[in-house]
Amino acid sequence: MATKNMAVLFGSRSCEHDVSVVSAVQWMAAANKEKYNVVPVYLARDGGWYTGAPLLNIEAYSSFNPKADGITRVLPDLSADSRALIEYVERPRLLGGRKVVARIDVAAPIFHGLNGEDGSIQGVLELMNVPYTSSGIVGSAVGMDKIVMKQLFLGCGFPILDFAWYSRDAWNERADAILDEIENKIGYACFVKPANLGSSIGIHKAKDRDGLREAMEIAFSFDRRVVIEPAVEKPVEVNCSVLGFGDEAEASLCEAPVTWQEFLTFEEKYINGGGKGTSGGKGGMADLKRRIPAPIGDDMTARVQKLSVDIFRAMDCKGVVRIDFMIDPASGALYVNEINTIPGSLAFYLWTANGLPFDRLIDRAVEFAEKAHAQKNAASFGFDSSILAKAGKGMKGRK
Predict the structure, then answer these.
(1) Using CA of residue 59, residue 65, residue 70, residue 76, what is the dihedral sign?
(2) CB of 326 within 8 A of CB of 230?
(3) 3-class SS shares of the chain: helix, strand, coil, % to 5
């Protein structure tokens, strides 16, 4: 069986750049080398694209050197079906053109945050006509923006907490009035979150007006729009992953993170637990202490799993996602918090607990990528029209 060139794309201009690197290195280490020739494609903090064998190792990123031996700067050829990564040169050769460094059979976007998880890279891969393992443009974009996501959840009838949102321009014009509105609608305590960030970056809990003002300022430093939600007292967090495409979607076991104070911070998710793992077993979200399966009872587990699949289908997701829930221990109410269309560590630990090892999870994600790609290419992209012919005749002689 011939190996497939699997480009693993990661990094990028995002506050979650480092988390993306950890998740990608885990994926590359776990991929079956008899099935895939792994091609690391690192998008550096400045936006440059690089590839090369040294990028398979986590040590390459502590002090990234783009001029190190074995590392080549590349550009994607956006021509449909070229699937080429081309060597980047400041002055193209007069003869021979640009050098093709690799051709991609399938791509695995392993980004967290903006400029990767938000539909931007998915758009590039659509132009290249390359199958890819993450959700598509729409699902990725909706999943990245907490405001649009919540509006979709609300429209679909999924249970969510009340929320309010504001733009940076509105805040700069009428901050005191906005504080009044939040106090009247949401009250204290509340959480303030940047609309387009994950990994708990920029999130703060406000318990009074001064704390709310500070939290709003911090959130607006990360994003031009923020969302505010009421804080549930000592909530039970439950996460569930979904794998599939279209009608073929299945939910994993549920998990309940053990570490909980007011909310899971970036440090709790990625630093305190280690975060340097390079294989399918350690590092990133995989090192967070958790209970699998979550001790929430059979009925609540079934409800979380069904809601997860329903959300996955409503957003037309693909590959591996993780959906986060909260249970109010006082009322027993279940709320959908958010969806992660490319979850930290690709939530492989949930599937390992389900009996699906990481390498097989990657195989399944590739299978769904190729299935979605085949369905897209089966659609008609041509339509015979006389518009241009008529327009050409009508425009003759015009200046």
Answers:
(1) positive
(2) no
(3) 35, 25, 40
Q: How many CB atoms lie within 10 A of CB 197?
A: 22
Distance CA 34, CA 108 (A): 17
**pLDDT by residue (tens digit) across 40-63?**
999 999 999 999 999 999 999 999
Whose tokens are 């007069």? That residue is 94
Q: How far apart are CA 217 and CA 208, in angstroms?
A: 14
Bridge partners (DSSP) listed for residue 318: 245
Quick one: angle between helices 120-128 and 137-144, nearest 10? 170
* Domain boundaries for CATH 3.30.1490.20 within the chain: 164-230
Return the structure tokens found at 12. Answer: 């990028």
Alpha carbon distance 124, 114 (integer Å): 14
The arrangement of secondary structure in 164-230, i.e. its CATH architecture, is 2-Layer Sandwich (3.30)
Domain with CATH 3.30.470.20 in the chain: 234-374
- Burial of 99: CB neighbours in 10 Å, binned 0-12, 13-18, 19+: middle
**Going by C-beta distance under 8 Å and a sequence separation of 6 or more, which residues neighbour residue 378?**
none
**Interval 370-398: pLDDT, tens:** 999 999 999 877 667 777 777 766 666 55
Instruction: State the average pLDDT for the chain.
Output: 90
Strand stretches in 58-203, DSSP E: 72-76, 84-87, 100-103, 106-110, 164-167, 190-194
Tokens representing residue 310 in the block: 């329903």
CATH 3.40.50.20 domain range(s) in the chain: 4-134
For the domain made up of 4-134, give the CATH fold: Rossmann fold (3.40.50)
Residue-by-residue DSSP string for 305-357: HHHHHHHHHHTT-EEEEEEEEEE-TTT--EEEEEEESS-GGGGHHHHHHTT--
Instruction: Fill in the amino acid letter for 370.
Output: E
Distance between CA 352 and CA 347 in Å, rounded? 9
What values do phi and psi take at 220, rounded to 5?
A: -70, -20
- In CATH terms, the fold of domain 234-374 is D-amino Acid Aminotransferase; Chain A, domain 1 (3.30.470)
- Do residues 101 and 72 make contact, with C-beta atoms less than 8 angstroms apart? yes
Structural tokens at position 156: 């679909």
